[in-house]
Specification:
It is a single chain. The chain is built from five helices and no strands.
């Protein structure tokens, strides 16, 4: 038998306040670590130009002149080889 229970933040706090100091510290450390990971991921989405340049400096330069242009037939095969999301399809 499955039982779903809903707790308020206040109930959770009251339950956790009875923990020992070392257990509270352990929990707090892990909660802060979770918060730091979320902030790091958000920050990664908004790198500055300098950060991007440093991150990409070891990657080879892509020169489109090194590649033959796609023929209409190649383009059609590429499009039909896998589904293209609608929000990208408008740019093709």
């Amino acid at each position: 038998m499955e039982m779903n229970t809903t707790l308020t933040i206040e109930n959770i706090y009251n339950m956790l306040s009875s923990l020992s100091v070392s257990n509270k510290k352990w929990l707090a450390d892990h909660l802060y670590k979770d918060i730091a990971n979320v902030q790091f991921r958000r920050r990664r989405g908004a790198s500055s130009d300098e950060e991007l340049e440093a991150e990409l400096k070891d990657f080879p330069v892509l020169d489109m002149n090194d590649y033959e242009p796609l023929t209409n037939e190649d383009y059609k095969e590429l499009i039909h080889s896998r589904p293209v999301p609608q929000n990208i399809e408008k740019w093709l």
